From TrEMBL:
GO molecular function: DNA-3-methyladenine glycosylase activity; metal ion binding
Record InterPro entries: Adenine_glyco (IPR005019), DNA-3mA_glycosylase (IPR052891), DNA_glycosylase (IPR011257)
Protein name: DNA-3-methyladenine glycosylase I
Lineage of the species this protein comes from: Bacteria, Pseudomonadati, Pseudomonadota, Gammaproteobacteria, Alteromonadales
Residues given in the record as Zn(2+) binding sites: 5, 19, 177, 181
Keyword annotations of the record: Metal-binding, Zinc
Pfam families the record matches: Adenine_glyco
Any one of the GO BP annotations: base-excision repair
């Protein structure tokens, strides 16, 4: 049996699947990066597992996470999504996703891609933290503070330092797999 991160509830097969195949894998495409931004901002104040269970709902509601289509959504779409039980029906979070899509497009225009922008924060190499126990995990860092501040300056909403840190972990800019976790070294091999 493989050893995994101490935060993982191994009684939930879909959570184990997410940990074993996605969490911490370096993301280099903007479509996946945008998907995680939508999901992480929806998570604020909730558990990641709650959002993971609703990911298909989000995929449908937010047009397969097509950033251009999401950016063109309007108030009528917000009202429709407020009735959609397959997502978290929080008006501010829904509106933030649409707003953030517009901001995401501006970053793409300025930097060529969102990935170019965000990976520059770690000099294009993931930060690999030493995690021996659950107590070694942090909720934010100077990196997430700086990135959240810049995103806020650029107009993003529902992406504070804690949410941004979760995003960095999920998309592999920060490798926070436990030292004993079998995925720690595996995701390091996926770095470009």
């Amino acid at each position: 049996m493989c050893e995994r991160c101490p935060w993982l509830d191994v009684s939930k097969p879909d959570y184990v699947e997410y940990h074993d195949t996605e969490w911490g894998v370096p993301v280099y495409d903007d479509a996946t990066m945008f998907q995680f931004l939508v999901l992480e901002s929806a998570q604020a104040g909730l558990s990641w597992y709650t959002i993971l269970k609703k990911r298909q709902g989000y995929r449908h509601a937010f047009l397969d996470f097509d950033v251009r289509q999401v950016a063109s959504m309007n108030q009528k779409d917000v009202e429709r999504l407020m009735l959609d039980a397959s997502i978290v029906r929080n008006r501010l979070k829904i509106e933030a996703s649409i707003n953030n899509a517009k901001c995401f497009l501006q970053i793409q225009q300025e930097f060529g891609s969102f990935c170019s922008y965000i990976w520059a924060y770690v000099d294009h190499q993931p930060i690999v933290n030493s995690i021996d126990s659950i107590d070694d995990y942090v909720a934010n860092s100077p990196l997430s503070d700086a990135l959240a501040k810049d995103l806020k300056k650029r107009g993003f909403k529902f992406l504070g330092s804690t949410t941004v840190y979760s995003h960095l972990q999920a998309t592999g800019l920060v490798n926070d797999h436990a030292n004993s976790c079998f995925r720690k070294k595996e995701v390091q091999k996926l770095v470009r």
